[in-house]
Amino acid sequence: MNKPKNQTLDPQDWEAMRELGNQMIDDLIDYWKGIREEKIWRPIPEKVKNSLDVPIPEKGKDPTSVYEEFKETIFPYNKGNVHPRFFAWIQGTGTPMGSFADLLASGMNPNTTIGEHSAMYVDRQVVNWCKELMGFPNDASGILVSGGSMANITALTVARNAFGGGKIREKGLLENGRQLILYCSTETHACIQKAAEILGIGSQYVRKIPVNDAYEMRADLLRKQIEEDLGSELSPFAIVGTAGTVNTGAIDPLDDILEISREYNLWFHVDGAYGALAKLDLVYSDRLKAIEEADSLAFDLHKWLYVPYEVGCTLIRDAKKHRDAFANTPNYLLQESRGLSGGLDSINHYGFELSRGFKALKIWMSLKEHGREKYAQMIAQNNRQAEYLTQLVLENPNLELMAPTSMSITCFRMSPPNFSEEQIRDLNREILVRLQEEGIASPSSTILNGKYTLRIANVNQRTQFEDMDLLVREVIRIGKEIIG
Ligand SMILES: Cc1ncc(COP(=O)(O)O)c(C=O)c1O
């Protein structure tokens, strides 16, 4: 047979590709350097949306024109979380080094799950640093996953599978005979309920314990609910305490929850997706100390370690329980003692995913670049900025603080005298949208005790204190414009 002509996806002209790559880096540097002067958000023109809704290209075109199209249709309409005044949801900024690390990681492109190669050791190194950051013991285990939601379900899977005789993996939930019960607060992130649904616990059996005025779980009501459930022949198995709730940054009484979990022999999981890293801020380290005693912890590095999306981490105190929850070795994943098939324990023994990117590299490079001390300063800075904003709100008679400020989340709204609750809601919704549409700042919103509020969540390494002055000034200006 005549051999067909070889084909490849590598460039025909390597030097042209080098030049294009250099141009991309140049453009990114200009983008980050000038981002403060840019609008935080701009609407996407219909024409652009239409260009992103077309049939699959049958034939390719040259790389430079693909990049030009990206610059025209995608780059200018970014979400904005690289901007110094992005405060919506809880979304990190990223860093240049973190982005370059991602480029290098995808250039090396190791599937980081099995085998003897450098990425496996970087992954192990980063998980060990995560343990060190969080005060987990050396012999604990951990895994890097895509984010907080995955980190939480990974931890809760271990908690579920370790429950009772540890037979759930083999026998399924029914064999256990009794209904599992999971405890969290009414302020717990929605991913915990989703996880419970996926794990076969059922949302009905997620006990959402009421919170106090500071949106922290009521430990007395937690204990009462556990007693009630035990009396009803149900099987409490785990409590989720949140270190930094998504709405207000509240910290559940972790010491009390720890004590209760020990008393009733329940798994103590901490959802620290947002706030666990506030442990590095001396103002919060004591209140977060109980994290060190948790059975498991979920936290995000794409939030408060400012690394680019996506990466979160699950830590499990008992490494055996962790491995027992996920490990299996099909014939095609045998490990050897030497060669590429040797090396460290396969990472898929510690989580659901088999294929994994080299997400550890951006954390490794970022921590090498800045060191723990600098991160501690940055996280503390965000918290102090929230306190500064809170002060501005309290000093301004047009504004109303809607929750105690905890960590770096500030909830406030414009609240003119004699306005009804509905009028205040409509006014602040309009303020929010205009702040975004005018490209000034991107807060988001939430509803606290039935009341609409603007919500400023700051895990932004580019924010300056002056941005808080500007934000307050602009909220008032826009509010007054709307009221006329
Ligand atoms: C407390 C908390 N838990 C879980 C999550 C989910 O994390 P992710 O968005 O990384 O999946 C968040 C996200 O903001 C959060 O704040």
Automatic annotation (TrEMBL):
Tell me the keywords, alphabetical order: Aminotransferase, Decarboxylase, Lyase, Pyridoxal phosphate, Transferase
The keyword Transit peptide belongs to this UniProt entry's keyword annotation: no
Q: Which SUPFAM superfamilies match?
A: PLP-dependent transferases
Q: Name one Pfam family in it.
A: Pyridoxal_deC
Which cofactors does this protein require?
A: pyridoxal 5'-phosphate
Q: Which domain of life is it from?
A: Bacteria
Q: Which GO terms describe its molecular function?
A: transaminase activity
The family assignment reads: Belongs to the group II decarboxylase family.
The UniProt entry, under PANTHER family, shows: GROUP II PYRIDOXAL-5-PHOSPHATE DECARBOXYLASE, MIP05841P
Q: What is the protein name given in its UniProt record?
A: Aminotransferase class V-fold PLP-dependent enzyme
